[in-house]
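It would be a great kindness if you could assist me with a short task in structural biology. A protein sequence and the structure tokens that stand for its backbone fold form the material at issue. I should value your view on which stretches of the chain appear to form regular backbone elements. The record follows directly beneath this note.
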Amino acid sequence: PAHFGGKHVLVAEDNDLNWEIAEELLSDLGLELDHAENGQACVEMLQQAGPGYYSAILMDIRMPVMTGYEAATTIRDLDSPDKDIPIIAMTADAFSEDIKRCLACGMNAHVSKPIDVREVARLLEKYMR
């Protein structure tokens, strides 16, 4: 399996149990994970961290305050080098129209829940800087 040696990844997830599961599974890959409880918090944490701090974002779709779709669109519109950060949707919404909407909002890829750690690792390897 891939090992990402301390790369910082921002996980936007409003459900505490889902966050804990993601943290448990993904920290075994060597990732340093930070938790944003909604899309707005995700955008703010990305901006406050400074350019290049985060290597990728794992984005839930259905969140309060700002959805994953809205957060991805906002990030892509930033006047910052981080506007091109890899964003991978990590959501239970797995119909083809959900996947198309994720990509249309500027996300790089889509993973359905429950997450397959090997698939997440493969996508991170493919897209992460």
